[in-house]
Write a structure and sequence with these properties.
With 386 residues, this protein is mainly alpha-helical. Helices cover 73% and strands 4% of the residues. The longest helix is centred in the last third of the chain and has 38 residues.
Length: 386
């Protein structure tokens, strides 16, 4: 339990009220977007509406098997974006009211289009390959599909910092100086090889503060938001980097990628079993598994399984983040500055340091700021008692 007695010392009443107000203003819209997406998936997947959609849009392009798969996939992606877009726009508008947004609506629209293009570029060939596999082996397609899903998870994890991150941000090496030297020395002292220290131009979108370590082996780099560099003290930047190095030290990215690959491989046979269940196929208006009109059903089942697994994924993420916090404390030995850094991040990001426990358990990927500060104080007390 977070030490609520220290609340007044860590945050002013105005800061606490501001964080709570932002959470209360954004959360209904964020949850609404997720529920709207699930509702759309359910309507299209568990009724004949999805089959009708696939048949109709496939007919626009000749009505062939490939046309139904590709056009149906594109329709699902675009409809999904269209349904969630008003909710995302509202979340953005609320964030802008609290000074967290620096990007104009036109820039945001370009990002939405870019993200949609990436989703289409990934989803369409995957759907075509999957249904080709199903057509070739209707009973055993899930075996090679499971292996392909695992390999794809690994490939995307490796390619993300090299291909996808540069689509949305520009990166430049942190100039030579005391901070760059300190960050590289921190990594060296931690026994971690880092290729470079990069600055992301986050300020063109947000005032939020952040940093992370991405990549594997020769592609690994420390990435710092330019907002963090211009706002935080150098020692605070080091502590944020130390937390991120904790993820590398404990192989969190590699472990997460491995677990993600295993999870993807395990989900495929579950989806295959559900997709072959006759009552579901009948409800979805699909003749059989290889019928492209089963595509909305497959998407709905995947979305439902993903939603059900979210609390478990969040719980695992919070444990990983707490361990990275402990690593930062042990690497730097500076609990007091760590607490100051957590306070600065919470205030700058307009976070609620003490959200309702249910919200944290179900949705949060990180421990609340209050819990992180309390853990740092406990670590410091234990250290001083030794």
């Amino acid at each position: 339990m977070a030490d609520t007695a220290s609340t007044e010392a860590d945050f002013t009443p105005q800061e606490l009220a501001r964080g709570r107000a932002l959470r209360r203003a954004r959360l209904p819209w964020a949850l609404g977007g997720q529920l709207a997406s699930l509702a759309l998936s359910a309507v299209l997947g568990f009724t004949a509406a999805g089959a009708g959609l696939v048949g109709a849009v496939g007919g626009w392009f000749g009505g062939s098997w490939a046309a139904e798969v590709l056009a149906g996939s594109a329709a699902l992606v675009l409809l999904g974006r269209a349904v969630t877009l008003p909710f995302s726009a509202r979340v953005r508008a609320v964030s802008a009211r609290y000074g967290l947004v620096t990007q104009g609506w036109s820039g945001w629209a370009v990002d939405v289009l870019r993200g949609t293009a990436v989703a289409l570029a990934l989803f369409l060939p995957l759907a075509l390959g999957l249904y080709a596999l199903i057509g070739r082996s209707p009973d055993c397609w899930w075996i090679p599909a499971a292996a392909a899903a695992a390999l794809l998870t690994v490939a995307l994890s490796f390619l993300h910092p090299l291909v996808f991150e540069p689509l949305f941000n520009r990166f430049a090496s942190l100039p030579e100086g005391e901070l760059r030297t300190a960050l590289l020395e921190l990594a060296r002292r931690d026994g971690i090889a880092v290729r470079d220290v990069l600055v992301a131009d986050a300020s063109r979108r947000t005032t939020a503060l952040n940093a992370y370590v991405s990549g594997f082996g020769p592609t690994r780099r420390i990435v710092v938001y330019d907002t963090l560099l211009t706002t935080a003290e150098p020692r605070e930047v080091e502590l944020v980097a130390a937390h991120e190095l904790g993820h590398v030290k404990h192989r969190d990215v590699a472990t997460g990628t491995t677990l993600g690959a295993l999870g993807a491989a395990l989900v495929v046979p579950v989806l295959a079993a559900l997709l072959a269940w006759r009552p579901l196929l009948d409800a979805a208006g699909a003749a059989d598994v290889q019928d492209p009109r089963s595509l909305p059903l497959l998407a709905a089942l995947a979305a439902l399984l993903g939603a059900l697994s979210t609390p478990v994924q969040c719980a695992a993420s919070r444990r990983i983040e707490a361990r990275a916090d402990r690593h930062a404390l042990e690497l730097t030995g500076d609990a007091r500055q760590f607490i100051a850094m957590q306070r600065r991040l919470a205030v700058a990001n307009v976070a609620d340091p003490y959200p309702p426990r249910a919200v944290e358990l179900l949705l949060a990927t990180h421990p609340s700021t209050g819990r992180r500060i309390a853990a740092a104080r406990s670590w410091l007390a234990a250290r001083e008692a030794r």
